[in-house]
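Lab meeting prep.
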Amino acid sequence: MAQVVALYRFPVKGFTQESVSELRVQPDGRIEGDRAFSFRYASGVAPRERAGMQLWSKSKGLTRMEFPSLAALRLTLLPDGGGIRILRGDDGPELVSGPLDEAGRRAIADAVTEYLLAGPEAAHLSAPGRLPLTLMGTTGESRFQDNPEGFISMHSRESLAALGDALGQEISDDRFRSNIAISGVSAWEEISELSAVRIGDVHFAPQEPIGRCLNTHANPETGVRDAEVLTTLTRVIGQSQPTFGRFLLPVGLGAPDAGGVIRVGDEVELVS
């Protein structure tokens, strides 16, 4: 039986994932609290519109694709939305900790700026419109996905293992920053021709497979680019374009009863 084996949420775009036992899928198709915050460039503090929806372009804020050294930081939200704490590594010294009021956000953004300016990607912050960084977002609100539709992302452990075999090294879920990891299916089955997906009691309409970028080359623990994921997907796996995992939207998108709660251990059905 196929089932959910891991669930993840990413409170701050580009930073540490949270491994959780359940996720709430909102009627608008987003995960509650996923990508709720983002460090935005000076030129990116307002969204643009696409198809009548807000789009916060990932090119206007910090991402691991451009700043892989962010992977070496460990960010946690303090209880009850009380603030943000960032460490240098799992047991490293504290980089910054502060509340989410105006002064606290400024201090957190300044500390992240100083960290990046002292690192290998410092030149990227010198481009026009980059500084100062602004920490934007609200606890629990899902806003800073790469697409205006939001989308939920899913991949299988079987596809992960197949890619690892092709690379000749073990790779982990967090390299791909998916919300849902499933097991008990064939490798690449989740990106095959599907008409429906059910996870527990929540029904999804499968969207396109997820096109991948250089972010996936970076080791999620260190930020060092140590795996040629894109060329392996195309030249070894045989994909025409490098994809890994699939986007999902709940059936009845926007209706009050769309979405629901999905949990680790839920049964998964992929309908071709």
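Slide two material, second protein:
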Amino acid sequence: MRIEPIHKKLSTSFVDVGKLIKHLYHYHFVGRIHIEFSDYEAEVIFRPGRSVHVRQFDHQTKTFDNGEKALKDLLARSREPHGQVNVFEYIFKERPARVYVDEHISASARRMAYSRTDTNASEIISSQRQRDEISRMRDRAELKELILELLKNAEMAFIAQRLDFERIFSNACSLVAERYPFVDPTKKEFEFADSRLYVSERISATQLANAISAILLHMFCKLQQSAELKKLLGFTTHRFRTVISRRRALIDRMLLTRQFEKLADY
């Protein structure tokens, strides 16, 4: 397991810790939030299976507490200024690339390999087309996973700063809809809500990548409005670079490097 920072040194003056806890719990987050003041510190630990444990230490009284009392005290202290909030994610294992095998195609390939008779050319072409279609569907599914992961990270960043992600995201979609009409919220062809992403099958991978890049770049501009938000932007783009790096082979294979490099290099 490795520990990866998502947000560091956020101020309690700007972060709604209660909403952040609910947001991470909703997304089955595994990791911890660490809140620190000069005389007090606490941790909210998210374990696999949506198990949450809270503990605190009061430096003045030299006392430890955990459970419901610690959560109540934590929420009260987090409303005070001059505290720092750090969020760390636990990465247990890199997900291996998934391979989808169509048994019918595999069986056909075995028959062709061991057959003593010539195989009709049309059968070979048909089998290849099936393999190509399965590969295309696999890549599209992985592309949606990549985009979903980026959107979740962006949403977390905005919520951590008490920004209305849903409204800002919807406005960004409306603004880029002139170039990419399918993201218009009224058309119901593209939607991100409740940690789920819906995209109409008629939208090509290139169109989808172009639109997502435009939407997120517009939203990044919102994070440049203050010094505090600029710092958050730095952590968010660092997170994006990590996510994109893990999917580099997919991005290059689908010829989408330019679109995602815009996000990684922002």
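Talking points for slide two:
The chain has a mean pLDDT of 80.
The chain has two domains: 2-91, 140-264.
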